[in-house]
Amino acid sequence: MDLRDLKYFVALAQAGNTRRAADAVHRSQPALIKAITRLEASVGARLFERVGRGQRLSAAGAALLARATPLLNAADAVRDEVAALGQGTAGIVRLGCGPLGAEYLLPTISQRLLQEAPDVQLKLLIRMNYESRIELRDGNLDLVLGFVPEHDDADFVYDTLLEDIVVVAAGAGHPILRARKPVTLEQLACYRWALPNVSVASRVWLDQVFESRGLTPPQTQIETNSIPLIPRVIADTHLLSFVSRRTIQASRGRLREIPLETTTLVRNFGLTYPKDVSLSPAAEKLVDLLREHGQALFHKMD
Length: 302
Hints:
- Helices cover 45% and strands 24% of the residues.
- With 302 residues, it is of the alpha/beta class.
- The protein contains twelve helices and eleven strands.
- It has helices at residues 3-15, 18-25, 29-43, 59-86, 99-104, 106-116, 129-137, 185-188, 201-212, 229-235, 245-249, 281-298; strands at 48-51, 54-57, 91-97, 120-126, 143-148, 156-171, 192-196, 219-224, 240-244, 255-257, 265-274.
């Protein structure tokens, strides 16, 4: 199977029309059709069905497309790294990272990486952990730095670096902090919240805490995929939220923890990478730096 033919196949699958696909890859239509014919001969199945003036994927074509994009991405990554090594640089690392790691670890780790390996090219994607894990599965990332799930996945290696604790937080002027008695879960259910979206693992965990005790999940007035936005919002409102203790420590008194064992989540923080893919020397260097310095940097504010 020729990778160039595979690239033309993806172009046709996306365009749905040989003329548009040929224009996209800067080839003639006859050349594109020959490439598809070679690919069909290679896999022993028809990949497209004609629909009017266009082309539609067959069942075999749809199955190939699902595997073609990660394969082409992996080939591009190999090409880029070999080219970088050939030019005398140390390589490329594609790292996905969540907001917490980006705030507490990456500034210093990036600085140390540039000091010890000045020719490494670091490509950073700052996203929610579940989004980065999708990119990793699709072959678009080499590593993910973020929260490690409790369950194992046959496709990934999980390398735990440290623990993080997530608690309920409020602005320093929130009325719930005036209570003389310990706050209960029932009291928390009476307030409105600013929370990450329902795809985020910590949000799922918090909702389940309330539901397991027969309570309605938190009334979410603000829902966002921007974790750094939440502390700034709740500091000046009467909304509650669910954040890392480090976020409270970094707020310089603007946020306060509402201590309640029931709503205290201990989660693992670390690296995720594919099980059957060897990390490049540049990626290994980054992993070594995180293992050596990550714990100290994360606990710097304790």
